Amino acid sequence: MDQPIELxxxxxxxxxxxxxxxxxxxxxxxxxxRDVPEACEALLWEAHRQxxxxxxxxxxxxxxxxxxxxxxxxERVARIGLDSAAQQGGFPADWSQLTVGTTDWSAxxxxxxxxxxxxxxxxxxxxxxxRDKALAILAKMAEIDPVDQVGYGTIAALARGLDxxxxxxxx
Length: 171
Prior knowledge:
Elements: H1 21-32, H2 37-50, H3 55-67, H4 71-89, H5 110-127, H6 131-144, H7 152-161
């Protein structure tokens, strides 16, 4: 199952910004090495070393750690990615300060990556049994992205379902 890391939207554009070819090559090598976690991780960090501001590298890294159930590492990388996206997008890195008018949340690139990574962070918090933190992130997402562009509603339904709230089962 040597599937390439798919970071493109349906229109063919990169979801979180362009990836230089040499960084993309490293990401694809990491996919091929995923059955050797140490090699995969080393390739991902090499991609980060060569492209420290390339947002899809953060995505690949936090997804790698999440899939290996290394939630503290996944959270750390996600938070660093949020900081980088905020810096590139020119908005605050502290998600609690954001509003619907902070930036164009529908724009590809840093804004979209920030939303997507907030969703990932909420899921990480949920998996770490930090339901209140997850719900706080999800509430902010509902405020700044009321049309749910990145699918956080699924995570919100899962979080609500933990309490057995009506109509909130896993999606």
